[in-house]
Inverse folding.
């Protein structure tokens, strides 16, 4: 019976064959322990000299790291293993011998590992992170599909910039200027006017010359937009969604979280409602914590976000930022027009902003005024303005950065480990 490591629990006491790679091994005179992986998981294969042919045992002792093979053996329960099962090996068939595999069980520097990212992905830690990333994506589709959202795919090549022009990747689109998308938001607003509640999931690009542990040049965003949803409605969707993906990871990725050494008690607490503070209150909180250099109207940096998050054991919304700090499309507070109806969601434990969202301006004249104030070309945004001419309604949306969210849920320090092939300021290879 051919199967996978993930499925061996169905075959306890039976002989199976698994296509796998050798992740590691150790052996003594009469027994060899093979750490096997097949992409679905990791399992230990036990080869006892007295139970197999001599050539099989010699193969087990001489096999090299990352050699591909078919392993046949009997599945048995092993309560000492985090996985819960092991394989009593009866035969080994080598498919391809791996020679001088560069990533050994010893310590390697980050740059070396990044140069070998195509191989580093095979390690148990990276495997766990990628499985959790996959679970977050699966749960995202499940959440939005179950809540009446329609998946819409905005373009990656655009003629205008939703977040301003300073961080754009420019390219030529035949005889026109074009840019790699910073966000699908503007197009998602158009889709919301047609389909009500929509979401996108795709790559975005920021030409920001930053080297922090929170930044990537290319990253993935989940961007919902909702017609007839005002500011409060928007915040409720965000906390329900974030709670949903965290609880899904806890339910379906317990082994991966254990592999990463994640403190799951902190994640179990992630349930709505989330705490909220205004920008004004955040400034005061920072002053109380000794950040005397920050004034009203200043944006928050990573140390500020971390200090604010330390006061809460759940993600915290910071709401009502100054209008001058935020993009042109955000709806001002009617009672206080110098601030906008927006919120950043700050993750606990120093992981920073994972969501930015707002109610969008739905008044034609105000949006036109904002575009002019930001010195953006009206012709390029003509189609976006037209959304406010033909049955405009209050609407809201947000964007969640997948990699920062993966980093937080996994408890890993740097976002470079949360995407299969990270694009950083100094890295386009592999």
């Amino acid at each position: 019976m051919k199967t996978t490591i993930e499925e061996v629990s169905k075959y306890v006491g039976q002989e199976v064959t698994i296509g796998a790679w050798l992740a590691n091994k150790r052996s003594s005179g009469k027994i060899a322990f093979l750490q096997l992986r097949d992409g679905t998981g990791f399992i230990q294969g036990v080869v006892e000299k007295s139970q197999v042919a001599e050539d099989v045992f010699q193969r087990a002792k001489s096999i090299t790291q990352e050699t591909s093979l078919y392993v046949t053996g009997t599945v048995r329960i092993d309560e000492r293993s985090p996985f819960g099962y092991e394989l009593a090996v009866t035969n080994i068939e080598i498919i391809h011998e791996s020679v001088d595999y560069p990533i050994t069980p010893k310590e390697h520097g980050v740059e070396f590992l990044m140069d070998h990212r195509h191989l580093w992905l095979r390690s148990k830690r990276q495997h766990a992170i990628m499985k959790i990333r996959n679970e977050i994506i699966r749960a995202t589709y499940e959440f939005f599909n179950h809540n009446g959202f329609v998946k819409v795919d905005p373009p990656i090549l655009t003629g205008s910039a939703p977040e301003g022009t300073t961080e754009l990747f420019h390219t030529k689109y035949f005889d026109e200027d074009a840019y790699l998308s910073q966000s699908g938001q503007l197009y998602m607003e158009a889709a919301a006017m047609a389909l009500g509640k929509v979401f996108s999931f795709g790559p975005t690009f920021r030409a920001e010359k930053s080297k922090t542990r929170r930044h990537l040049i290319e990253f993935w965003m989940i961007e919902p937009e909702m017609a007839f949803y005002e500011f409060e409605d928007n915040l409720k969707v965000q906390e329900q969604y974030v709670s949903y993906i965290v609880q899904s990871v806890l339910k379906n990725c317990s082994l991966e979280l254990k592999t990463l050494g994640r403190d799951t008690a902190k994640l179990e607490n992630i349930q709505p409602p989330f705490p909220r503070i205004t920008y004004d209150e955040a400034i005061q909180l920072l002053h109380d914590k000794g950040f005397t250099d920050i004034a009203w109207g200043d944006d928050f940096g990573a140390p500020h976000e971390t200090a604010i998050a330390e006061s809460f054991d759940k993600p915290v919304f910071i709401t009502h930022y100054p209008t001058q700090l935020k993009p042109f499309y955000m709806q001002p507070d009617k009672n206080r027009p110098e601030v906008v109806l927006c919120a950043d969601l700050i993750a606990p434990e120093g992981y920073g902003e994972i969501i930015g969202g707002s109610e969008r301006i739905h008044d034609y004249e105000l949006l036109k005024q904002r575009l002019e104030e930001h010195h953006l070309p009206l012709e390029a945004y003509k189609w976006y303005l037209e959304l406010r001419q033909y049955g405009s309604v209050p609407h809201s949306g947000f964007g969640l950065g997948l990699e920062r969210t993966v980093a937080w849920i996994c408890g890993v320090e740097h976002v470079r480990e949360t995407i299969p092939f990270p694009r950083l300021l100094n890295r386009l290879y592999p």
